Amino acid sequence: MDNRGFQQGSFNSFQSSSSDEDLMDIPGTAMDFSMRDDVPPLDGEIEEDKSYNGGGIGSSNRMMDFLEEPIPGVGTYDDFNTIDWVREKSRDRDRHREITNKSKESTWALIHSVSDAFSGWLLMLLIGLLSGSLAGLIDISAHWMTDLKEGICTGGIWFNHEHCCWNSQHVTFEDRDKCPEWNSWSQLIISTNEGAFAYIVNYFTYVLWALLFAFLAVSLVKVFAPYACGSGIPEIKTILSGFIIRGYLGKWTLIIKTITLVLAVSSGLSLGKEGPLVHVACCCGNILCHCFNKYRKNEAKRREVLSAAAAAGVSVAFGAPIGGVLFSLEEVSYYFPLKTLWRSFFAALVAAFTLRSINPFGNSRLVLFYVEFHTPWHLFELVPFILLGIFGGLWGALFIRTNIAWCRKRKTTQLGKYPVIEVLVMTAITAILAFPNEYTRMSTSELISELFNDCGLLDSSKLCDYENRFNTSKAGELPDRPAGVGVYSAMWQLALTLILKIVITIFTFGMKIPSGLFIPSMAVGAIAGRLLGVGMEQLAYYHHDWAIFNSWCSQGADCITPGLYAMVGAAACLGGVTRMTVSLVVIMFELTGGLEYIVPLMAAAMTSKWVADALGREGIYDAHIRLNGYPFLEAKEEFAHKTLAMDVMKPRRNDPLLTVLTQDSMTVEDVETIISETTYSGFPVVVSRESQRLVGFVLRRDLIISIENARKKQDGVVSTSVIYFTEHSPPVPPYTPPTLKLRNILDLSPFTVTDLTPMEIVVDIFRKLGLRQCLVTHNGRLLGIITKKDVLKHIAQMANQDPDSILFN
């Protein structure tokens, strides 16, 4: 990051531009963060407690220490930078120790100690309530606006199609979707729903509504909250690893993402709301953190809250509280202590209970596609389940490669400059191709619900149009039957739907609107699974005497459940794209309400992951993190190369010497000159330039704030004033400018490694301690520095990837 000049980072700018919508509750800065220099920025640790003792000019040693009063901005982080996990955890331990010691002194201090311990649970309760309420609002609004494209309820404009006909007195069970209160747009405009002209009117209004919703969504995102686009999970994953993206979890992002998510889903584009709901829940968690100093002032503690909020987001997205906790643990969280596990579970529980109380779908379920199966599966069926896993892995690898290639083209060409046109063109193409096919015209959640459905006698869907050739059957159980005309028609339509979903999702994910990937991926797998399930069902019916069937499937028995194949296919495709395993299986069995199908789900999920990993190691979220250049150090990957710290550190051979500060021989002018002429974010402090013996590390940001604060608060500090980083200073002759003591902003225990330390150890240190940089020494003398960006570039270089793709430290 390029910080040009001392005067750009003025104390006033640090003090005045803070906002409660920023991810970090820190004062703002006017520094320039553009990448103008290939030299990575250096970040350092600083202590929490700063001191200032306003010794005047006439004091005994004329030493000025301006840091006893807390200065806004000192000890905090710049935007697009990484937090120091070690320092943040140390600060929290010191805070907790102080509260515990004070609790023994008075009743009020004891009450404060109890409230501090309870604040985490109260925060989880608020996150669960707010996340569940917003999820219910999004579900109800999206359902209503999706139906608005096809018609309107004259009995109450606020009713969607299903609720409109529920309230009707003129509807039969067989025709429960047709009632006089629900009017299509052709009925309202030309008073008829029959004929070619009525079809054209409905077609035109469907496309028009879709374009209107998409235009409103992309316009609101572009004007008010650019961070509200996309899924949000790659950025959430990066933020939880310690990265700072100001405003990404702010109030404007929350408001705009909630509104535009409804619009985007209602437009009919091939996207889902489940992924963005994680972003919405994390926004709720970040905003509510401002109510508690314990979390507002500590970045590591705040990320524990965000991990729990991510669990609540998945809980309301799928109605799966346990799956949400496991998703947060397996997929997004970087630091997940046992305490966070308990609180995540509580937040997910409250969120699910709140959504259940709202009952957005009117069926006492948390999701539209909840289903229960009753027929047991047979061992032989593991073969088609594994085939679905292979299909899911192939689809996942294909999707990741093609989508990343398209997103890279969007970033590097003129296409990225016209997000509104791109969204409108994709919406028009999707709507025009979707309307003629009833399975693409309906919302993707309704499609999945239809595919998961286990056909009964009263089902009127074409997927359940079987020929009834039986006399008796067990109660609540239907035997396998020959497919009727409706089933064969549905198979052709589903095959066309599968092709459209595969192609259109590649170009939709990553556009400048809220777009989740869970539902489109599940839809692709559910369609493939249903097609295979119906094929297996008909094979078992017509050839029940084959060796593979005769031992367990007799004529007239209910052997094959096509809906189960759809569910397994959905899990396989979602696993192939995201590389989820344990959390995916738990989410899917929570959706079905039964534990009997865990083995098929596990077989499909693991096969999908193995096949996808064989074709590419990265899941879709890790691929987008790398595409955006975020400094995410993957904890799951092993570093197996035999390089040393001296091979990675800066400066390299033939590079200029490392810029350092000396502990007692530099003036204010000297330090300001270094700050203005370099772009580094921090500087090692040494005893002298000759000895290069390391004393500590000081952050550029803290130097700027401290020096300017000293100039403002005390007369006599001039450019020739000497800066001391020592604990004691020598006597100063009379009539010389007062000296400035800045020892309290110096990190006296920076992490160091020797130049011969293997890089695999250095990488492990960065991963497990969350470091931003470590210094390299030889026999106690400072040689260089390794930043997190240097480590990421080295890993990319060893993997034959572009090291310059890492944009931030």
From TrEMBL:
GO MF annotations, alphabetized: antiporter activity; ATP binding; voltage-gated chloride channel activity
Catalytic activity field: 2 chloride(in) + H(+)(out) = 2 chloride(out) + H(+)(in)
Topology term for the membrane: Multi-pass membrane protein
Predominant location: membrane
Regions that span the bilayer: 118-138, 206-228, 305-329, 379-400, 420-437, 490-510, 517-536, 564-589
Disordered: annotated span: 1-25
A cellular component annotation (GO) from this entry: plasma membrane
This protein's UniProt keywords: Antiport, ATP-binding, CBS domain, Cell membrane, Chloride, Endosome, Golgi apparatus, Ion transport, Membrane, Nucleotide-binding, Repeat, Transmembrane, Transmembrane helix, Transport, Ubl conjugation
Localization, UniProt: Cell membrane; Endosome membrane; Golgi apparatus membrane; Membrane
Low complexity composition-biased segments: 1-18
Domain named CBS: residues: 649-713, 745-805
A Pfam family this chain is assigned to: CBS
InterPro entries assigned: CBS_dom (IPR000644), CBS_dom_sf (IPR046342), Cl-channel_core (IPR014743), Cl_channel-5 (IPR002247), ClC (IPR001807)
Function statement: Proton-coupled chloride transporter. Functions as antiport system and exchanges chloride ions against protons. Important for normal acidification of the endosome lumen. May play an important role in renal tubular function. The CLC channel family contains both chloride channels and proton-coupled anion transporters that exchange chloride or another anion for protons. The absence of conserved gating glutamate residues is typical for family members that function as channels.
Subunit structure: Interacts with NEDD4 and NEDD4L.
Similarity comment: Belongs to the chloride channel (TC 2.A.49) family. ClC-5/CLCN5 subfamily.
Protein name: Chloride channel protein
UniProt source species: Lipotes vexillifer
The gene coding this protein: CLCN5
